[in-house]
Design goal:
There is one protein chain. The protein is mostly helical. The protein has a domain at 15-88. The chain contains five helices and no strands. The longest helix is centred in the first third of the chain and has 35 residues, at 7-41. It is flat and about 50 Å long.
Length: 136
């Protein structure tokens, strides 16, 4: 007897894996933010940072990313959301949230980095075309 494709089972597994990816990305982002905060904790701003930041930052980021994951699942029920688009959106948000913590990085540059663009500006597609960019 030939095996029948189980589209219903793969559809049921996808929302759970999308939410678990979002939670995982949120916790990783939280620990990256915690590392950026820890650098400042050993400076003169030591008294301004709570000891509870060790558990609150990853927990909050996990919660926010989990809610975004649930929102993506709701959107994916109506419109097909490719896995790489959801993972790229979550990774871009995580990169943006970590870069915003550094005062030397401008917010628009952090947004550009989180969105996958070069911080220096310009279009990557022009560099590959012959004759499109004059080289000295």
């Amino acid at each position: 007897m030939p095996s029948q494709p189980t589209t219903a089972a793969s559809t049921l597994e996808r929302p759970g894996s999308l939410v678990s990816l979002a939670l995982w990305m949120g916790i990783v982002t939280g620990f990256a933010e915690l590392a950026a905060i820890a650098v400042r904790m050993f400076g003169p701003d030591f008294a301004k940072v709570s000891r509870d930041a060790v558990w609150m930052v990853p927990a909050f980021d996990g919660l926010v990313f989990g809610l975004i994951g649930v929102l993506l699942v709701v959107i994916a029920r109506r419109v097909r959301v490719p896995w790489h688009v959801a993972a790229g959106l979550l990774a871009g948000l995580g990169i943006f949230l970590v870069l915003v913590l550094f005062p030397t990085v401008h917010q628009s540059a952090a947004l550009a980095r989180g969105g996958g663009r070069r911080a220096g500006g310009g279009d990557r597609g022009l560099a590959g075309r012959s004759g499109a960019v004059a080289r000295p």
